[in-house]
Amino acid sequence: MNIFAVIILATLAIDFVLNLVADYYNLRSLDEGLPGEFSDVYDEQTYEQSQAYTKERTKFGILTSVFNLALLLVFWFAGGFNWLDEIVRSWQLGVIWTGLAYIGLLILAKSILSLPFSIYSTFVIEEKYGFNKTTPGTFVLDLLKGLALGVVLGGPLLAGILAFFTFIDQYAWLYAWGAVTAFTLFVQFVAPTWIMPIFNDFEPLEEGDLRRKIRSYADKVNFAMEGVYVMDGSKRSSKSNAFFTGFGKNKRIALYDTLIDNHTEDELVAVLAHEIGHYKKKHIIKNMGISILQTGIMFFLLSVFLNSQGLYDAFYMEQMSVYAGLIFFGMLYAPIDMIVSVFMQVLSRKYEFEADAFASTTYRSEPMISALKKLSKDNLSNLTPHPFYVFLNYSHPPVLQRIKAIRTGDSYN
Question: What residues sit in the active site (predicted)?
């Protein structure tokens, strides 16, 4: 076992243990009493249900993590990566097609083995707590659509990356970085109009009091309202949400139909004001910039380690290749990815506080607070998560912290 194997195994172990400890403390922090702030929204039965949901999702998540880790280790130390490499090389497809076949088969096998967990999550746990609205037909169709998108969009991008690192000796990482950046910007631009409608229907919000209130607010904050759409989220789940996506003329705000059904007009305007806050504070552009920078660093480091014989020896590979190197470097890069992920979670929570403050100051605070309370109830959110679990996993601050910040006028807590 060489230094590369030690680093990767240590990272896998640390990540697993950290998340296991976070899960343990998060379960212990479940409060037996309903926080007073939510007494006007929750009843005791619903609160007990939210705690039971958190427990079941957490235990299922641990089981899934154990399975994934065990699967990786067994495949690794049984020589599975080299075994698959010998098979695809025997097909004599050419270097790029061989790489696509190798990586594609790994992704396909992982997806198939994970399918029972996805089915159980959707049709047992989510069904048990009244969330699931997905039919077996929709579930299968989503899988096929996702596979098709992966082939159509991901295939050419992966082929380009393989070609850069195979045929260009110097500065291949710069070409790959440029290609991925261009691809990311392209997807961000076309996703609202070309990709997302493949999975959901988006209908313009119909004329009426709600649309007039939204238009009035948008004019007030000088937001060019290209589109506010209602998404048929109820097609798959009864959970509620709203999001901002795209940029330029293709930017749009989407409100789940379940959100509209369960909230007042003032609450909906407050939620929309929060999403506009993300745009006004340039959170989306900032995140994209950080992501592009991170991608550049990753590709540079890849160019450094891609030809290291030890990286391939760690996985018992008899021959070096760019496509296998991509897989192995991804695992070697995991420590950096863990640190960046935690940083991005901290930054994301800061952005949520800022968007809440924007909505509260440019509209009103009480509708924002009542909307947050209803959302937590509708989604059976954990109202008392442990701080360590929040630190590792939450992209949004706990709802009690958000409400406190809104009441005190803080934009960051």
Answer: 275, 356 (proton donor)
Distant-in-sequence, close-in-space partners of 311: CB < 8 Å, separation ≥ 6 = 4, 305, 325, 328, 329, 332
Q: What would the pLDDT profile of 72-105 be if each residue is shown by its tens digit?
A: 999 999 999 999 999 999 999 999 999 999 999 9
Q: Is 283 annotated among the ligand-binding residues?
A: no
Of 227, 243, 274, the residue at which a domain comes to its end is 274
pTM of the model: 0.91
Which residue of the set 275, 318, 354, 410 is catalytic? 275
226 given a catalytic annotation: no
Residue 396 assigned as binding residue: no
Residue among 168, 184, 154 nearest 303 (CA): 168
The answer to whether position 153 is within a domain reads yes
Per-residue pLDDT tens for 230-277? 999 999 999 988 887 776 666 778 899 999 999 999 999 999 999 999
Of residues 278, 285, 272, the one with CA closest to residue 230: 272
**Exposed/middle/buried for residue 17 (C-beta within 10 Å: 0-12, 13-18, 19+):** exposed
Q: Is 275 a catalytic residue?
A: yes
260 within a domain of the structure (yes/no): yes
Strand partners, 228: 253
